[in-house]
């Protein structure tokens, strides 16, 4: 496992120290054990896949991050200043949203991709940014948020959403819509401020529609292209993002049917596709891709049905953990549960049309937030048990 930054290394050491020295931390982990267990299950399955297919050691670089974030999550049981953390997330949202504006209007980048990753990172960057937008909106809605902080969170939502639209990433933006609607409904049901909720929802929807319909028609055009590309897809016509995805999914399904139980190994889809292209069984248009642009197909290709089951558990178990606390009487517990549900919801929906765990940036955000929020809820439930 490689610690890439000093802050991550410090957080890792703090988490280890908390687990060793603080009984309260260990008790919080006991409450959150289902979330930790399913993360470990996914890591163990990846190790088994690595051993069974005799893959290169580099294959374990990404899965091994799980151990890092299992330790970092323990730091969420320390007496942290929640206001500072919330402001930090919103400032990060502002920074990343502003990066999109800079890349588009100063550098002339057609689809902004953030601080690293290049052109291919636009989709995952949009998902990452929209997760932060949802967290900022949640903080803006919380009753204990001060007016200055509320304005900061609202500004982060506006800049982050605009930046996400500039990426022209259809999958994350379409996934964002039902998750955002769910957040608004949860807020309305909990606060009973239906008029405020409807006003916020209308402003957000109107703003996004105005931006996409006037300033950035290319987003509308990209959405309009989807049905046409799907209808015209064939073995002789695989050009275009949608057709290429359909061709990759076709190859992924073929690989799965050939190896339904063991798969072909982690990160081996690109090797398989190039072999099929050489044999004339796949379009050369997808020879450049190393993943099938679907997290669900990725798991089926890499490890067959068992891997798909592990992935579903990896998403569903934390989802159930947070859903059980969504109506908790303690506002901080309910807000943490809402945050966890939104994170998982975005990843689960985006996973249908793109790989969401194949790079360090999006996987790190998922593990950091899901494990951290679960342990934080565990601590709060220990201190104030449900009656």
UniProtKB/TrEMBL annotation:
Q: How does it sit in the membrane?
A: Multi-pass membrane protein
> What keywords does the record list, in alphabetical order?
Ligase, Membrane, Transmembrane, Transmembrane helix
One Gene Ontology molecular-function label: ligase activity
What InterPro entries does the annotation carry?
O-antigen_ligase-rel_domated, WaaL-like
Where found?
Answer: Membrane
Q: Where is the O-antigen ligase-related domain?
A: 156-312
Query: What are the TM regions of this chain, as residue ranges?
Result: 6-22, 27-45, 57-78, 85-106, 118-138, 150-167, 173-189, 198-216, 300-321, 333-358, 364-381
**A Pfam family in this protein?**
Wzy_C
* PANTHER family listed in its UniProt record: TEICHURONIC ACID BIOSYNTHESIS PROTEIN TUAE
Protein name in UniProt: O-antigen ligase family protein
Tell me what organism the protein belongs to.
Answer: Rhodanobacter ginsengisoli
